[in-house]
Amino acid sequence: MKQRQRPRAAPLFAEAETACQRAQNRDLVVRSLYQGGRSLASAGEPDKALALYARIESEFPEHRFADDARLRAAEVLADGGDDDGAEQRLPRSA
How far apart, in whole angstroms, are the C-alpha atoms of residue 19 and residue 85? Predict the structure, then answer.
C-alpha cells in the first residue's frame, strides 16, 4: 500500500513556493501553495492550511485551483467543527 507523507512535505512545498516566486512562475506558485495547504491540513495545522488556501483565492482568483482551494478550506473548517464557516465557503447553486 502506498502511503503519502503529506505532513512531512509541508516545508518542502514552502521552499518550492519561494523558488517558483523567484522564477516568476505563477502556476507553480499556486500549485506549491495548494499542496502546502494539503500538507499542513494533514499535519494538523488547519490555521496555516487555511492561510495558504486564502492566499490562493485572493492573490490568484483566476487560477483553476482557486475553486479547489475554496473547497479544501471548507473541508478543513468542517473537520474542525465549523460547519457554518464551511458552508459559507461553498458556492450556492443557481
Answer: 33
